[in-house]
Amino acid sequence: MAAKILIVTGDAAESLEVLYPFQRLREEGYDVHIAAPARKKLQFVVHDFEPGFDTYTEKPGYTWPADLAFSEVDPGQYAALVIPGGRAPEYLRNDPELRKILKSFFDADKPVAQICHGPLLTAAIGGLSGRRVTAYPALEMDMQTAGATYQDAEVVVDGTLVSARAWPDHSGWMREFLTVLRAKAPVT
């Protein structure tokens, strides 16, 4: 039986940051489930960089069904966790069911991959204190406030926590996450 990986997300998550790890991990042979506040079709977004803009722009992205509601997740059934970015983490960090899930993964020292604004979720449970991370560069002060040492790098590995800045860093992010994952939860 293949090890299970959980992706936690919601509406307004960045399309590439959900679907790239979803497909890449399935390609490796992992069983991947997407959990959200409710079982429903999620509306993702596309964040892109336009000349002359001081920040990214947002456009409608793909839709995708959530396999599970957060309240249905048994963290003990999953070997690892993926936390995409986009705007979803801004409101998801307030969800008590999701915070329980996140805490379970960190307490068990299971592999966690986070990208872009995803670290807002791990910060909400105190999971970044004393850790080295990267995130979308605009979150540098948020990461420091959460007790992390922020590094502006393609990917940062701190034990079982693997973080990246944004979707342009996908290849390095998944390469390093798979290295951690293969050691901790190899495909059987």
Automatic annotation (TrEMBL):
Mark the transmembrane ranges: none
| DJ-1/PfpI domain residues | 4-178
Taxonomic superkingdom? Bacteria
**Protein's recorded name:** DJ-1/PfpI family protein
Protein family membership: Belongs to the peptidase C56 family.
Pfam families for this protein = DJ-1_PfpI
Q: Which CDD domains match?
A: GATase1_PfpI_1
